Amino acid sequence: MISSPVHRRMSWLGATAVSLAWFSAAPIEAATPITPKDVVYQVITDRFADGNTANNTPAGFDSTLFDDPDLDGHGNGDDLKLYQGGDWQGIIDKIPYLQGMGVTAVWISAPYENRDTEILDYQSGGGIDRWTSFHGYHVRNYFATNKHFGLMQDFEALKNALHAQGMKLIIDFVSNHTSRWLNPTNGNSAEDGRLYEPDKNGGNYVFDANGNPVDWNSDGNYENLLANPHNDVNGWFHGLGDRGSDSSRFGFRHKELGSLADFSQENAQVVAHLEQAAKFWKSKGIDGMRHDATLHMNPAFVKGFKDAIDTDTGGPLSHFGEFFIGRPDPKYDEYRTFPDRTGVNNLDFEYYRAATNAFGNFSETMTQFGSMMTQTSTDYIYENQAVTFLDNHDVTRFRYIQPNDKPYHAAIATLMTSRGTPNIYYGTEQYLTSANGSDIAGRVFMQTETAFNTSTTAYQVIGTLSALRQSNDALAYGGTEILYSTNDVLVYKRQFYDKQVIVAVNRQPNVSATVPALNTTLPTGTYADELGGLLFCSSNTVTNVSGQNKITSFGLSGGEVCVWSYNPSLGTTIPRIGDVVSTMGRSGNTVYIYGTGLGGTITVKFDTTNATVVSNSDTKITATVPAVTPGIRNITVVKSGNTSNTFRYDVLSDDQVQVIFKVNASTVLGENVHVVGNVPELGNWDPAAAPEAMMNPNYPVWFLPVSVPKNTTLQFKFIKKNGGTVTWEGGSNRSFTSSSSSTGSSDTTVYTWQP
């Protein structure tokens, strides 16, 4: 039986208090969630720096799975399928290096225990590849650390060291699957996929003073089997086999990704365990979570999962996830609306795709890249919270695609000045490349490949533009306007009220271009290049021509990038909202509002309802979501008779649980079945606001898990949509009462469509 959430919290906080006292007499407060002012740096923990060679081969680990053929205790960086030795102490050691580059948040590999046995891939030619779970995506026990990275006291030390420097900590978190349970290279023979948990005392997990599991029952083990896909008596896994070529939503969400044992996120026991695990790591003082494989997850689960985490003690975290698409893609609408439906923002794969094509292989023009930026600014409701990137652990290293320094630097400068929150993949600043275009080849061991040089041009570009992102709100909060574009040149403006940044980019390394005079709202005067000529630019002037201010015509040499900034004070009288974290929650939740003019005597409103202001300064407000009618509400800040711009916030009806709606309904080509009902989560009877189309792997039976308020009697009906045509079923409203448990999940009967 799952232990009481209240008792669990007391158990964890007790262990945390002891461990913090062990390391520091004055615990360091957690930093805040990331905002668009931040620059995130993604570290594959095993592939960054080895700060403690003692954990390279933990007790019981097969030492031949550590890449150390010369037996000197250090990873060689030669066999990238094996562990290399990077750990949390290595990250701590490199904090000054990261600070010098302007990094304000560090995203690390999943910190918990992973499957630690060899993974064998049988090759068609008769060979066998040996792999490890160095990447952290094969969970074994959510409540113990990955011993290759360190013990819990080492994790606490990393968190404290980052927070001491005002830096934030984001962890990878995998709630889609455990490890591979069938081996597709060996006739789907049985493999692993098992999930474990620590020993319990009276229903609560037991940890030592440092927060590590203990052998409480003296059976010689620190963990106990909780769920096994090979004997799944409690239905923890879908068990439907690999997705293969099934491109349906059902296939993506219910079948397996790479034969990884796929959690049944509709199962209340699974929900309870995953929420418990996420809250456990939140209690350690993290600032955000990057959610793995959100494309393959049940959005109803994700919505409730995020809500449970943010409602727990400590306020909202940053949440972004891997909804991996590549346009043109029929799932694009599902991708772009995922943050609005779940509260978990996206890693911006659309930005990645366009940047790869424009700056990497030159298969798209700069005009097309500019169109992507403005189109996605319209498509994404929270465009500045999307986490932009040039490459990461799942794709080809950008340096492999673009070996020429000039377009490479231009791409970095554009990333750092574009809408969104930029993420730098470890080693991009050191020009790390790979032996081939695979993702694994890009996961090189930075310690063996570089000297962590702080004088590279890429390092300096990132650091300089990070400082500008923090000082000029136009980059963090502003909109995007394209001022000029050709196949190879792009000039764009970022603007937040009177604050502006103008960026001019020539991607061609050896071909110069001339940009004509451009109309501008900048005041007349001379503007220095914020990069100080790092990418060949100098100052430019704005003059008045016949009553119109114009940026004087200028040339761009090969690879030249210009960044001109206008950063006037907006004063402290008029409140202006730049960003809000979180964008979804319920009455009583904490919400952070960022911008300018937010200090002094203010009122925060959700539509017309006043919120409680907990604290405020000129740039940040901490408030509490008021008791207000659930649904989409506009946040405003009122000060001295001045009302700010609005910011969209989704107020949930209550603690979210799942109801799996089911109906037997015949349709014609083009028709889809939806459920609509009397709460905002069911669209408030508005077909346009109804949840996504139901799934029909066993047509004519349709089903859909939906996140709804707990312990609520729902009134609903089914409808059919075909383009703009909506057909309502007949008869009386249907009724169903959701679970009273905060982690509950309920199935309706299979209703029959009422003609």
TrEMBL record:
Keywords: Calcium, Hydrolase, Metal-binding, Signal. It comes from the Bacteria. Coiled coil: none annotated. Its cofactor is Ca(2+). Residues 729-755 are annotated as: Disordered. PROSITE patterns: CBM20 (PS51166). InterPro entries: A-amylase_C, Alpha_amylase, Carb-bd-like_fold, CBM20, GH, GH13_cat_dom, Glyco_hydro_b, Ig-like_fold. PANTHER family: ALPHA-AMYLASE 1 (PTHR10357:SF215), ALPHA-AMYLASE FAMILY MEMBER (PTHR10357). This is Alpha-amylase family glycosyl hydrolase.
